[in-house]
Specification:
Blueprint: H1 4-25, E1 56-59, E2 66-69, E3 87-89, E4 102-107, E5 113-116, H2 117-120, E6 126-133, H3 150-154, E7 157-166, H4 167-174, E8 182-187, E9 194-198, H5 199-202, E10 207-212, E11 215-216, E12 226-228, E13 241-247, E14 262-263, E15 269-270, E16 279-284, E17 295-304, E18 310-316, E19 324-325, E20 327-328, E21 338-346, E22 351-359, H6 368-375, E23 388-391, E24 397-399
Parallel strand pairs: 4-13
Antiparallel strand pairs: 1-2, 2-3, 4-5, 6-7, 7-10, 8-9, 8-13, 10-11, 10-12, 14-15, 16-17, 17-21, 18-19, 18-22, 20-21, 22-23, 23-24
Length: 400
């Protein structure tokens, strides 16, 4: 039989310990282990054992320019965590107070209007999963500087769930004049990044987005508001959106004349090559990794297309002599990542592996040789060739 006096004494002692526990935890860091685990957190953070999963940084001609590459080889599924989403910065990251931010819509409209963030948040919204890819992603594969890991070769690429107002909803309120054919989108960064977009795309699926993966987007992703232009090159997804001008023709900004054009062998340049074609890459096993020995491994990676949905992915484990159909994880969404996988038994011999995908327009991802034959060596934007990984007999994996 329990001694009631001892029981009450033990309970009081435990209660005293519980009351002093917050003092013991006060000032301790997030990675310091505690007897009963870590304290509650107002904003969650990842385990200290995952600190190696980070973006790689490159600096441009000025310290406030450059890019950050997503560690594709370390990710699962199809959604890129917001903190690991790639970024390309042309003129620093502005600090914008959303309570003061405005978007002007003017030009060939019936009623020029200014929209504030509180106006956007009361309008009909959508949430859709879409990838964003820099036009220059993988360009080094063509011009002799191939990436040795998925992060190096394909890391200017990410996929998020974006929430916001369809751009067509804003234009319904301003009205559009019959002569309107294009729209200029301008950002609030120091260089006033601006791109021209055809009205057909504007009225189709462009989002004026303020949310990313369930919360407000990060400052380097355009906080408080940006354009998401599904399937088109990253540069047109204007961040820190401040102005939309409706026009009868493109404005020919520096970003669509001197930059983001494709120089062809005949000396002419392709312009307004917006769409990012079907593309895929194996992320595991891949460059920078090492197989521990012969046996079973799952080959997995991602595929995407700026024209629509991925309908098939094939994998070669013998240097292209044969191709096997990989499983594509459902649901497959338009202009978004699709995760594929293939069970594989490695026999321990040296080999090369790769993937190629097909979208619902019938377009199949080409080989490097096909791209060079069509475009030459100068047009490195929009490169979407097949990526090969070499697996050596010791398990080491490198670019092939």
């Amino acid at each position: 039989m329990l001694d009631r006096r001892k029981l009450l004494s033990s309970a009081a002692a435990f209660g005293a310990l519980a009351l002093t526990r917050p003092k013991l935890l006060a000032g301790s860091g997030p990675d310091v282990p505690h007897e009963l685990g870590l304290p509650r957190r107002a904003y969650g953070y990842r385990s200290s054992f995952e600190r190696h999963v980070v973006r790689s940084l490159s600096v441009g001609q000025h310290p406030d320019t450059g890019s950050a590459h997503t560690p594709l080889q370390d990710l699962y599924g199809v959604i890129t965590p917001s903190a690991l989403h790639f970024e390309r910065i042309h003129a620093g990251v502005p600090a914008i107070n959303p309570a003061r931010h405005e978007i002007l819509v003017h030009g060939l409209v019936d009623r020029p209007l200014i929209f504030r963030m509180k106006d956007l948040e009361r309008m009909p919204s959508v949430s859709r999963v879409h990838f964003i890819e820099c036009a220059g992603n993988s360009g080094g594969e063509q011009d002799g500087f191939p990436g040795n890991t998925p992060q190096e070769s394909h890391g200017l690429l990410s996929c998020s769930e974006w929430t916001g107002v369809p751009l067509s909803v804003l234009l319904e309120q301003t009205g559009i004049k019959p002569t309107a054919k294009w729209i200029l989108a301008e950002g609030a960064d120091a260089c006033r990044m601006a791109r021209s977009l055809p009205l057909e795309k504007v009225l189709d699926d462009i989002i004026v987005a303020y949310g990313q993966n369930g919360e407000a987007m990060r400052p380097e992703q355009g906080y408080p508001v940006r354009l998401v232009v599904p399937g088109w090159e990253g540069n047109v997804n204007v961040k820190w959106l401040r102005r939309l001008q409706v026009l009868d023709q493109p404005t020919m900004t520096a970003w669509e004349t001197a930059w983001y054009t494709d120089l062809l062998p005949n000396g002419k340049a392709r312009q307004f090559t917006f769409v990012m074609e079907a593309k895929s890459v194996i992320t595991r096993p891949a460059g920078g990794q090492r197989l521990s020995g012969p046996g079973f491994y799952e080959i997995t990676g991602i595929a995407w297309s700026g024209r629509g949905k991925i309908v098939g992915v094939e994998v070669s484990t013998d240097g292209g002599r044969s191709w096997q159909k990989a499983a594509v994880q459902e649901p497959v969404q338009a202009k978004a990542f699709a995760r594929f996988s293939l069970p594989w038994n490695w026999n321990g011999s040296e080999n090369t592996i790769a993937s190629r995908c097909t979208d619902d327009t019938g377009y199949q991802q080409p080989a490097l040789e096909q791209i060079v034959a069509a475009r030459g060596l100068n047009a490195t934007d929009h490169y979407n060739g097949i990526k090969w990984w070499r697996i050596r007999a010791n398990g080491e994996i490198t670019h092939a």
